[in-house]
Predict the 3D structure of the following.
Amino acid sequence: MFNSTVLKTVKASVFTALLLGTSATVHAETSLVSDVANNIEQNISAQMQDMMTKAQTELSLSIQAQMSEMLFDMASEEQVTNEQLAAENKDQPLVTSAVTKD
C-alpha cells in the first residue's frame, strides 16, 4: 500500500515535471521567436527609413540638376537672340536725314 502510494506520487511528480519542462521550453521558444521577429522588424524599419532618406536626396538633386539645365538653356537661347538682334541692327544703315543727295 505504501509502495503503491509512493509509486503514484513519483509518477505524478515526474509527469508534473515533464509538463513544467515542456511548458518552459515552449515559452522559451516563443520568447526566442518573438525576439527574432522584433529584431527583423526593427532592421526592416531602419532600412526603409534609410532608403526613404536616400530617395529624397536623389530626387532633390535630380530636380536641382534639371532646373540648372533649363536655366542654362534659357540663358543660351537669350544670348543667341540678343546676338541675332545685334546683327540685324548692324546690317541696317542708320538714316539721319530724309533728304537724299543725287
Remarks:
- The two ends are 156 Å apart (CA to CA).
- The chain has one domain: 1-89.
- The chain has a mean pLDDT of 78.
- The chain has one helix and no strands.
